[in-house]
Design brief:
This is Mab-21-like HhH/H2TH-like domain-containing protein. By secondary structure, the protein is mainly α. Helix content is about 55%, strand content about 0%.
Length: about 110
């Protein structure tokens, strides 16, 4: 999904750069699975901006709550052992981004839908 690729790229380049990010691709995949369950209609995924912002908002919520339930092992919290300070820093970055979300759409090869 294009939305997931863009969120992953922002995670790597802006929100969690470095060798040991607090959020990994596995975390982002779980967020996507939960969003797909909550929004199962294909119409929910047609607009790139809407689905992208939904993923970012869920990532913000999970980082603030320090809780991300595994989609398949429901009793597992994927953020249980994550560094609280790193999650707080991530939450701050995500909240600032969501106040004025912007992407250079030209650099994203004309992504039109998720």
């Amino acid at each position: 999904m294009k939305c997931l690729r863009v969120v992953r790229q922002l995670k790597e380049d802006v929100w969690c750069p470095g060798n040991r990010p607090v959020i990994t691709s596995q975390h982002l995949q779980m967020i996507l699975l939960w969003e797909c369950e909550q929004n199962p209609s294909s119409k929910s995924w047609l607009d790139f901006g809407s689905c992208f912002l939904r993923l970012v908002r869920r990532l913000l919520k999970c980082s603030r709550q320090r809780f991300l339930r595994h989609f398949f092992v429901r009793r597992a919290n994927l953020l249980k052992y994550a560094d609280a300070n790193h999650l707080d820093n991530l939450a701050d970055k995500l909240a600032r981004f969501l106040q004025r979300p912007s992407l250079d759409m030209a650099s994203l090869d004309g992504l039109s839908n998720c």
